[in-house]
Amino acid sequence: MTNHKKLLAWVEEIKELCQPKDVHWCDGSKAEYDRLMDQMVQSGAAIRLNPDLRPDSYLFRSHPSDVARVEDRTFIASRTKEEAGPNNNWADPDELKATLRGLYKGCMQGRTMYIIPFVMSPLESPFALIGIEITDSPYVVVNMRHMTRMGTKVLDKLGTDGEFVPCLHSVGAPLKDGEADVAWPCAPMEDKYIAHFPEERAIWSYGSGYGGNALLGKKCLALRIASVKAREEGWLAEHMLILGLTDPDGVKTYVTAAFPSACGKTNLAMLVPTLPGYEVETLGDDIAWLRKGEDGRLYAINPEAGFFGVAPGTSYESNPNAMRTIEHSTIFTNVALTDEGDVWWEGIGKPAPAHLIDWQGNDWTPDSDKPAAHPNARFTVSAAQNPVIAKEWEDPMGVPVSAILLGGRRPSTVPLVLESKDWTQGIFLGSIMGSEITAATISKNIGQVRRDPFAMLPFIGYNMSDYLQHWLDVADWTTEDKLPRIFHVNWFLRDENKRFMWPGFGDNIRVLAWAIKRLQGKAEGVETPLGYLPKKDGIDTTGLEVDMDKLLTIDRELWQQEIKAIREHYNKIPRMPKELVTELEKLEAELG
Ligand code: O2Y
Ligand code: MN
Q1: Assuming Cys at both sites, which of 55, 97, 287, 392 could form a disulfide with 328, CB separation 3.0 to 4.6 Å?
Q2: Residue 468: closest CA among 236, 285, 240
Q3: How far, in Å, CA of 518 to CA of 524, rounded?
Q4: Which residues line ligand 1 (CB under 6 A)?
């Protein structure tokens, strides 16, 4: 086990507080994983899928109230409200701890308390962050085995006095003596808390067993807590995929990309190019940590070890590499079950069978009025199973980034692609990023734009204005030629009949190819107040029927409205960095 005194003392303290039936230190082995899966199949918490169709794979169904990240119940408990900023729910750390201690008291009764030593980044990376998650959910343990590097090897690295982030998690459903368990225990919404204590680097999560609320290495540690640490130490923790793009000349370029949730990050990370001679390899699909390397360039590393991807809409057509990744050894949550013991979801690319069991465990037929899979149903799988994972994806020093793509879901106004003229304008484009609110987003404001700077709105562990200033300050870390170039893309433009104007998916390579050519000095740009657009024939559209004039238009009238909307967005962020306000004024004057 361990002789780490601080860790042992913390485990003892939590044991006293939560009063579990027993304690298990996770070794991270496949044998341990299999044992837990057997127990969960036995208890009815998991269903083993047909091994002939989906070997070594399982289905879980969550409680209907516990199906996604809960932003309203996510808190940043920094010393002051000002430090958390307008972008976060702030809570006083002492008050929040008192509330949570009350909830944690006896919360693991009748359950096993699992101790999961895990590391974000490859174990041997100098940038690795170690966390210890204490949880009463065996579902969390098996998911963490895919999503992080976990187990005894992490305790070995921690030694007797290494630093770790304590991550406490409970589903918040104690079992009385003799009380039968349910398949998915959790607490009511008003008792759910996803709490972050950035100054002391601690995470306390209570009441939810789902995804980002419970797998604490992901959004809680690798983004919210890491973003605070990154600001203090001079690096970046970002909501970005990382891909490697090899062009027909064999030149490989690394690109990171930030898109709000539900904009196809996993699809882009695993893209199958429709242009001959290009190859895309995945290094990460959700989170990137970026640091300055010795040569002055920015290096990106994916701190995760797996994918927690949205199942609905994933098919051999939309994302063949994801489908191949999940052919075996995968955990599915909230998808539908076929009579043959395989999985099904809306958009899987096969017609719905005559009968299914839906995500809530009910009979389902194609004339049911509800989806068979929950729209936020997920697969959890090791990244190593991706057939296009880059061989260097676990390079402990990361890979040098040449371009950063930013994007959102905008039916109008924002052109298919443009390149910022300089770093400051790139950060301005990041600061105004936004996505149309769709029915998939829990909100009444369908059709409006939700501003989501750098796709980090739910994930910055501190004040948004300080975050944007931090991005601006990156320019002082190195020389301009070493900085990645910044592009803004929009795959989601629609015509007057509401049809998508750009095919997306594998054809997005055409836009990436233009960006790479820009880096290599092989493509001209057309200067506009917003940055450089491609020339009308700058993007290879061979075989496509697309209206490049419309896709590459900056409509002055729409942009005048957009500027008003940006101003409203900026007005909601006190202490907006002056450089960004100046960019907005410059844009207004130039478009005027
Ligand atoms: O609903 C959840 O808990 C998952 S959210 C998620 C999962 C994987 C990657 N990104 C996200 C996200 O919300 O950005
Ligand atoms: Mn994400």
Answers
A1: 55
A2: 236
A3: 7
A4: 68-69, 210-213, 261, 286, 308, 376
Question: Could you tell me the pLDDT band of residue 101, with boundaries at 50, 70 and 90?
Answer: very high
Q: Which residue has a Cα nearest atom 12 of ligand 1? A: 261
What backbone phi and psi angles, to 5 degrees, belong to 153? -60, -30
Pairing of strands 165-170, 129-135: parallel
Q: How far is the CA of 4 from the centre of ligand 2 (A)?
A: 33
Query: With 80 as the cut, is the pLDDT of residue 347 above it?
Result: yes
The CA distance from 533 to 286, in Å, is 27
**CB–CB of 225/78 below 8 Å?**
no
Q: What is the pLDDT of residues 541-560, one digit of tens each?
A: 999 999 999 999 999 999 99
Residues in contact with 398: Cβ distance below 8 Å, sequence separation at least 6, in sequence order? 127, 289, 290, 291, 293, 299, 300, 301
Q: Which of 39, 229, 12 is nearest to 120 (CA)?
A: 229
Find, among 392, 302, 282, the residue nearest to 121 by Cα.
302
d(CA 37, CA 49): 12
- Is the Cβ–Cβ distance between 132 and 28 less than 8 Å? no
Tell me if 570 sits within 8 A of 463, measured CB to CB. Answer: no
Residue 32: closest CA among 208, 159, 152: 152
Q: Which ligand is nearest to the Cα of residue 261, counting in written order? A: 1
**262 Cα: distance to centroid of ligand 1 (angstroms):** 9
Closest ligand 1 atom, CA of 68?
1
Rg (CA), the chain: 24
Which mutation among 148, 218, 302 tests ligand 1's pocket best, with the greatest number of atoms within 8 A of CB? Answer: 218
Per-residue confidence (pLDDT) for residue 437, from 0 to 100 = 80
Report in angstroms the alpha-carbon separations of 456 from 30, 37, 161, 239, 258: 34, 34, 33, 6, 9
347 closest CA partner among 369, 365, 323: 323
% of the chain residues with pLDDT over 90: 97
* Residues with active-site annotation: 263
